[in-house]
Amino acid sequence: MANSVSGIQIPAPLYRPGDRPDFAHLNIPQAGGLPRPDVAADAKDLRDHAFGLVRVLNHNHCAIGDWAPELSHDELLKGLRTMVLTRAYDERMLKMQRTKRLSFYMKSLGEEAVSIAAAHALRDDDMLFPSYRQQGALIYRGADLVDMMCQCISNSRDNLLGRQLPVHYARKDLNWFSISGNLATQFPQAVGWSMANRLKGKDGIASSWIGEGSTAEGDFHSACTLASTYKAPTLLNVVNNQWAISMHQNISGGAAETFASKAIGFGIPGIRVDGNDYLAVYAVTKWAAERARAGHGATLIELFTYRGEAHSTSDDPSRYRPKDEWKSWPLGDPVERLKSHLIMDGVWSDEEHADLEADSKNEVTKAWKESVSYGTLEDGPHAPVQTMFEDVFAEQPWHIRRQRQALGH
Ligand SMILES: Cc1ncc(C[n+]2csc(CCOP(=O)(O)OP(=O)(O)O)c2C)c(N)n1
């Protein structure tokens, strides 16, 4: 939908608060429809993948088609457990923000498969350049919830010494690049890192995520150009969760039919995938990783999903979209879909799932109690004041030294 002012088109969302959302206009293809090409395929032969939608789980919760990955039940159960734990973590952190125990938080409700299935498909030595909504991948990589919470409340155990906004984690030990608040900067950084790593003779690749709104940034376009020119071993993930705060995806999408199709002009493959289908996200990430590792260059992956919660704790979505829009989302909930698949396969049950949810909540509660034993946002202890002058300059310039002395350090 678009309005026009003096002939200038101004796209608008289809539904506003009070409207009944209906996604019948979305063309959602059946699972199993698209073939899985060879990883060496020419980008120009992959047009259907940029306009279609790779889906593996069908409406009966069966995994079908060429893209259905061969994964053990144990592996899938690990994915499910991580998604449930991530949701419990997010829920708890939102509550803590609402009661002023932390200053800011960003949930990933509805987008858990986007990051967790991708982390599952990548190797531990692959470098991740995430946005602020991939906490699930960090948990999948083995981050301790206590460490993550301590970063969010900037207490004495915060590994970033209070220098970053909550949720902007950085973990060298887990190959997790510092999250930047400046949108899309991680895309060219990932391309550059992947090239440098290849030049060192290593086969680790880089994977980065931005939201669809961030594709309007110049960094998206420079990253695609660099990746295309140098065949950089990088996965460029665009998480199309329909909203960039209050801005609907049809603003940053412009006249393009899909975000994946933006890859075509750069001569790199663009693949659009059902972001709420754990198996499909895993399979497409694995394909793109194999392609990159084999020297065939970057892939742009559009993860088609829906942001189930507010953008952040500073946002109120009831002002710009129908309250129950997520409930009408035709691709459902990634946790429910993987759960149903595993129940259908006979390795999971509603009772076990309820136990998992309860255990995850308890694990998060326990982690929170331990986190605040290292200090609270309000009362500390925080990182010592002198640390704010460290880690930037090898040799401190005179004006920084003077500021430090003025503070008595
Ligand atoms: C360069 C830059 N411009 C604007 C902002 C403010 N801002 C933060 S998040 C955001 C929306 C991003 O939306 P999207 O890229 O779709 O990601 P999502 O939050 O939906 O995951 C904006 C405009 C920013 N942080 N950096």
UniProtKB/TrEMBL annotation:
2-oxoisovalerate dehydrogenase E1 alpha subunit N-terminal domain segment(s): 9-43
- Report the domain of life of the source organism: Bacteria
Q: Which reaction does it catalyse?
A: N(6)-[(R)-lipoyl]-L-lysyl-[protein] + 3-methyl-2-oxobutanoate + H(+) = N(6)-[(R)-S(8)-2-methylpropanoyldihydrolipoyl]-L-lysyl-[protein] + CO2
Q: Does the keyword Oxidoreductase apply?
A: yes
What are its cofactors? thiamine diphosphate
Query: EC number(s) for this protein?
Result: 1.2.4.4
Indicate whether Oxidoreductase appears among the record's keywords.
yes
Main EC class the enzyme belongs to: oxidoreductase
**UniProt KW keywords:** Oxidoreductase, Thiamine pyrophosphate
All copies of domain Dehydrogenase E1 component, residue ranges: 81-376
Task: Name the protein family.
Answer: Belongs to the BCKDHA family.
| Function as written in the Swiss-Prot or TrEMBL entry | The branched-chain alpha-keto dehydrogenase complex catalyzes the overall conversion of alpha-keto acids to acyl-CoA and CO(2). It contains multiple copies of three enzymatic components: branched-chain alpha-keto acid decarboxylase (E1), lipoamide acyltransferase (E2) and lipoamide dehydrogenase (E3).
PANTHER family in the cross-refs: 2-OXOISOVALERATE DEHYDROGENASE SUBUNIT ALPHA, MITOCHONDRIAL
Q: Can you name this protein?
A: 2-oxoisovalerate dehydrogenase subunit alpha
